[in-house]
Design a protein that fits this description.
single chain; 336 residues; alpha/beta; 52% helix
């Protein structure tokens, strides 16, 4: 009876998400953020049901240092897409985590107040949980859930902590970086490395008297990008200035994104990148399954505890202990 009820709930979640029910979408993402094995199994079963209804959105990564105005730009762009093109926009905003409770500190819904009022928008702040890549472990799954719910554009805002931000590339089609006016010279930008991976650099906060300087800096970045080696996509990264406050450059930003999509679809790179995203997801799931197997294997866990206790009691080095673990693994899982 319990299994029948669980099966019914799964179908109910599927039906509601496919209808675009944002409440059930939020519950599913919360389920995916759980570390409990039963919850991980449930979200994966749900995703299996929803996968035929995914893949139709454009996935966009938005990065930049704290204070660059990522949330402001996303709200302005999202509102523009909803009002002018009647698109559905999902925002997966990755917040820094509290070290105590791993909760979301910033709460992007409060920073995207206008966009959050729209029925065509879905905003989901999630704790980064100190993830090196600046994105949560389950952001990729949230992308597929949002696609199944009918969202046309998915914007992933990352925490903006530097080179680790490039990890977001493994789950997006288009990657943009925000730079504030006067935020650093071009040489320093090259050294940071992240600029080598972006598709569009936006010199943001090009407001009023800063507009000319922003255009000048964007032109300098554009020249700089021509010096980089040719990318696999054959796309030369663009650079432009933009003001969310004055709503200037938003239309050009969207046109650049569509130009990139058309360019990469024609060359076949767009589909190749989607394939690469699936490979990356499979590898993450593979690692998760291996971790779960090892964590729940009784003889292995007992053996590892004994090795650790022996290392402490006999003052063995960690390297010596790892050799004992290697012997244990060979015993439990012989290669022949």
């Amino acid at each position: 009876m319990a299994n029948k009820q669980q099966h019914f709930d799964l179908l109910h979640y599927k039906e509601e998400i496919l209808k675009g029910n944002s409440s059930f979408l939020s519950r599913a993402i919360t389920l995916g953020e759980s570390t409990l094995d039963t919850h991980r199994q449930q979200i994966q079963e749900l995703l299996l049901e929803l996968m035929p209804h995914t893949g139709t959105s454009i996935r966009v990564g938005v990065s930049g240092i704290p204070g660059a105005g990522k949330s402001t730009l996303i709200e302005t762009l999202g509102t523009y897409l909803i009002e002018k093109f009647h698109l559905k926009v999902a925002v997966l905003a990755i917040d820094p985590s509290s070290e105590l409770n791993h909760g979301s500190i910033l709460g992007d819904k409060t920073r995207m107040e206008f966009l959050s009022r729209s029925d065509q928008a879905f905003i989901r702040p999630s704790p980064s949980q100190s993830n090196l890549g600046g994105v949560t472990r389950n952001t990729r799954e949230a992308v597929y859930l949002c696609e199944a719910a009918g969202y046309d554009v998915i914007l992933i805002e990352t925490v903006g902590v530097g080179q680790s931000e490039t990890a977001v590339q493994s789950m997006v089609d288009f990657f943009m970086m925000l730079q504030i006016v006067g935020g650093g010279d071009d040489l320093q930008a090259i050294k940071r490395g992240i600029y080598e991976h972006i598709d569009l650099l936006v010199v943001h906060k090009a407001d009023q008297d800063q507009a000319n300087q922003a255009r000048k800096e964007a032109a300098n970045f554009k020249k700089m990008f021509h010096l980089f080696p040719t990318k696999e996509s054959k796309w030369i990264p663009k650079a432009m200035s933009c003001s969310s406050l004055e709503k200037t450059g938003i239309d050009q930003l969207w046109e650049t994104l569509l130009e990139y999509k058309k360019h990469t679809q024609f060359s076949g790179y767009f589909q190749k990148k989607r394939t690469d995203q699936n490979i990356a997801w499979y590898q993450e799931l593979q690692q998760e399954q291996l971790d779960r197997f090892l964590r729940t294997h009784p003889k292995l866990n007992t053996g590892m505890d004994q090795i650790q206790a022996e290392m402490i009691a006999k003052n063995h080095s960690p390297l010596a202990a790892s050799k004992l673990l290697e012997q244990l693994l060979d015993t439990l899982f012989p290669k022949n």
